[in-house]
Amino acid sequence: MIDRPSYMSRVLAALGRAPIVALLGARQCGKTTLAGMVARGRAATTFDLESPQDLARLQNPELALSATDGLVIIDEIQRKPELFDVLRVIVDRQRAPGRFLILGSASPQLTSGVSESLAGRVEFVDLGGFQLEETGTDALQPLWIRGGFPRSFLAATEEDSRAWRESFIRTFLERDVPQLGISVPAPAMRRFWTMLAHSHGQTWNASELARSMGLDGKTVRGWLDLLTGTFMVRQLQPWFANVGKRQVKSPKVYLRDSGILHSLLAIPDHDALVAHPRAWASWEGFVIEQVIELLQLRQVYFWATYQGAELDLLFTHAGRPYGIEVKYNESPTVTRSMRSALEDLGLEHLWVVHPGPRRFPADERITMWPAAELAELPLP
Known about the structure:
Elements: H1 5-17, E1 20-24, H2 31-39, E2 44-48, H3 52-57, H4 61-66, E3 71-75, H5 83-94, E4 100-104, H6 114-117, E5 122-126, H7 132-135, H8 140-146, H9 150-153, H10 158-179, H11 186-198, E6 202-203, H12 206-213, H13 217-229, E7 233-238, E8 252-255, H14 258-264, H15 270-274, H16 279-294, E9 301-304, E10 310-317, E11 320-326, H17 336-344, E12 349-354, E13 360-363, E14 366-370
Parallel strand pairs: 1-4, 1-5, 2-3, 3-4, 7-9, 11-12, 12-14
Antiparallel strand pairs: 6-8, 7-8, 9-10, 10-11, 13-14
Helix pairs in contact: 8-14, 10-11, 12-13
């Protein structure tokens, strides 16, 4: 087991502020394990909504939940969204901060009622897969290859890791999607997911994907939102600046877990990955996810112009804009695009993240930064 102190601190802090904390993340990313760590040493009652026995205990949910003491953990709550109204009534009546920790594998946008029913009563904590600060920097390569899902990363062999990921993909398509009340044929959704893998890191083009699958743009847009809402895909929105240049207005699409990406691309190991034409895109997405989770960023963007200038990741800190550029090159150099992003966006600093071992300044506001040291980015 790998400790997750950062997420643990965030959940505990949220429990101290809000009567209900929603711990959200993809299936099998470690939510139940983390909830068990939070419950350790305190009075806690757990309801797993995938357990028939626990579902029977909740036949009268208001009575069952009101009768519990201490922390109440409800796992896979998206399976029973009517509980949101019950929780609102209990919390408003008892005014007991920090009593409920609800775990879900779908975003509030997919889980009907959570935002409306629990507005002002719930704090959200998003849980991702393992991060470099948790696995240690020596695990950079296997974390990139296998992805951050605990059972994939901790598998005894590469073959075991690949088998787990393939099983996860199949279960997600055949069981998890239908449980959300969404009727999509599993083979069609897998084909769509695979096509997204091949365009990982590229600007979203609904009409092109729709034509390839013989569907309309509205349908593929809905499928993309489904994969986004279940934490499989990240839509990185564009940033617009008043720079007098035509700027890209469509989002970029990334598969959030590099291991799942490699399975969909049929990449079995490191040797096959480095020889693959999409290796740079895989590296870019992996680094972006690491940065977002390590820095706990919630508002992130990319920037690109039709003149060729671009920035892989833009975020603000203390009101100032910062940039991340990702290069799959151990000795990156400053490019015209970097200087354009630096000046047009007024960046406070730009870090160029690379797989090499050395960090070094390349300019007054540009630093080449090794991926293994992402947790040490010197934000003021």
